[in-house]
Amino acid sequence: MLDPSKYPAPEEILPHRPPFLFVTRIVSIDPEKGAVAEYDVPHDLSILRGHFPGHPILPGVIVLEMLAQTGALAILSREEFKGKLAYLAGVESARFRRPVNPGDTLRGEITMDSMRLNIGRARGTVTVEGEEVARATILFAMQK
User: What's the CATH code of the domain at 59?
Assistant: First the structure.
């Protein structure tokens, strides 16, 4: 496990950049086991203007993307994958429990299940203040 006091900014590991970076900070990383990260949902996030006017909620696909980016933190921390891309290859068994609102802080926790060749599988949950908002199994493919 990496030393928590030495976690870099998410942009130092992930290739994502605003407006498509959905990790504000790294909480923990174990390249072999998984990662925990947080995303502070801004009140002025542009997609919230249209989803839904007068009742803004973060789209579920963005919640899943945040979870996938959390998983990418772990896999891209492995020496053999540093500087590569991790592609989202599938989402299985996704479940949403409640809406995510502007101002919420998402906490994504992902556990790596398996890695064969360049294909991996991970399970994760997203919570807000300890309450589960979503869970899914994420499949990813590594850039060759």
Answer: 3.10.129.10
